[in-house]
Amino acid sequence: MRKKIGVIVICMMIFSSGIAIILNLKSNTQSVVTRESSIVTSFAAPKDLKDTDVLTFDCEYPEYKPETIMLLCGDGGWLVYKIKWDTWTKEGATGTGYFSENLCEPNCAEGKRVEAPVNLVLTDLTGYKDKYYLRTLEIRTSDGKDFPWGRAGFFGWDVMEFAVDMDQYEN
C-alpha cells in the first residue's frame, strides 16, 4: 500500500531592506515579513478581486494605474514617468514609459538628467492593510540593450518597501 505525501512548496525572496516575501504555492497564499519579523499580511487573493481594486505605490502613496512612479523617494533621482498601462489585473500589469535618472555629476543638485524609453511589468500581488498591491516593478529598456549612460538595461524595484518602512517609522 502506498501513501500519498502532500508537498508544500514555499518560495522565499529576501530584499535588501530585510523584507521577505514567502509564497506558499500549494495554498496560493503569501506572507510578507519585515526585518522586525512582524507579518504584514497573509492572504489568498479573493477570486472576486476586481482589477480596479488592485493598486501599487508611488513612494508611500497608493495609486491605481499611476502615470509616474518615483523610485528614489527622498530626492527623485530615479523615476518612471509618462506611463501608459496596457494591462492591469491582479495577476500583474504591463506598460511603457520613460526611465529618468539624475546622474549626480558633479553632485545631485547640479546633475544632468538622462532618460530612455522602457517596458514595465508590475507583479507580486500583496495584501497590506486590507488592500491589494502589485509590489515588484521590473524595468527593461525598450530596445533590450543597456541604458545609453551605462546602467544595465534591466532591473527590478520593490515599490512597496518605502511605504511599509514609512508606516513602521510613523507607528
Order of helices and strands: EEEEEEEEEEEEH
The count of β-strands is 12
The poorly predicted ranges are 1-39
Principal-axis shape equals globular
| Helix share bin | under 10%
* Radius of gyration using CA atoms only: 18 Å
Proportion of strand residues: over 45%
| Largest pleated sheet | 8 strands, mixed
How much is the average pLDDT? Answer: 80
Number of helices: 1
Quote the distance from N terminus to C terminus: 56 Å
Structure class: mainly beta
Structural account:
There is one protein chain. The protein has 171 residues and is mainly β. Helix content is 6%, strand content 50%. It contains 1 helix and 12 strands, in the order ββββββββββββα. It has one helix at 161-170; strands spanning 10-14, 20-24, 29-33, 39-43, 54-58, 61-63, 69-70, 78-89, 92-102, 113-128, 131-141, 154-158. Strands 5, 6, 7, 8, 9, 10, 11 and 12 form an 8-stranded mixed β-sheet that branches. It has a 4-stranded antiparallel β-sheet with strand order 1-2-3-4, with no helix packed on it. Strand 2 (20-24) and strand 3 form a beta hairpin. It is globular. The protein starts with 9 loop residues before the first strand and ends with a helix. Mean pLDDT is 80; it is low at 1-39.
Topology diagram in text:
Elements: E1 10-14, E2 20-24, E3 29-33, E4 39-43, E5 54-58, E6 61-63, E7 69-70, E8 78-89, E9 92-102, E10 113-128, E11 131-141, E12 154-158, H1 161-170
Parallel strand pairs: 5-11
Antiparallel strand pairs: 1-2, 2-3, 3-4, 5-6, 7-8, 8-9, 9-10, 10-11, 11-12
